[in-house]
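The authors assume throughout that readers already know how a fold can be written as discrete tokens. A single example would do more here than another paragraph of explanation. An entry of this sort, consisting of the sequence and the corresponding backbone structure tokens, reads as follows:
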Amino acid sequence: MKNINRILMRIHLFVGIGAFFGGVFGMTSPSGAAFGMPASKYLIGSPFKDFFVPSLFLFVIIGIGNIVGFLFHLRKIKYDNLLSMGLGLILCMWIVIQCIILSNINPLHVIFFVIGAIQILLPISKNRKTKDA
């Protein structure tokens, strides 16, 4: 059970820090030119004119959310597993929506979808081990 907690904490930190800085980068360059993805090309047909709103979501919900998830596990706060599962679900949904909007799937999408699935499944495994003991 301690190993599962450590794995979840590392996942939360990895996803949280990456999303935090990715969100900041996207909000400071909403046109996408700074990272070689011009919004005028990649966001055609999407509800967004630039990357600011998606980057804000990435920063607040996925970035700060996963850092909070890390802190919940670190301090063993009651709803740590529920928060991990919710954040994993949000990450999976985020990736699916991103692939639909961009009309593209790349290896990073697959990797982060799997990470989100792990965030959902590890707390379930942890709860089963607790009940079996």
User: Anything to note?
Assistant: Helices lie at 2-28, 39-42, 52-74, 80-102, 107-132.
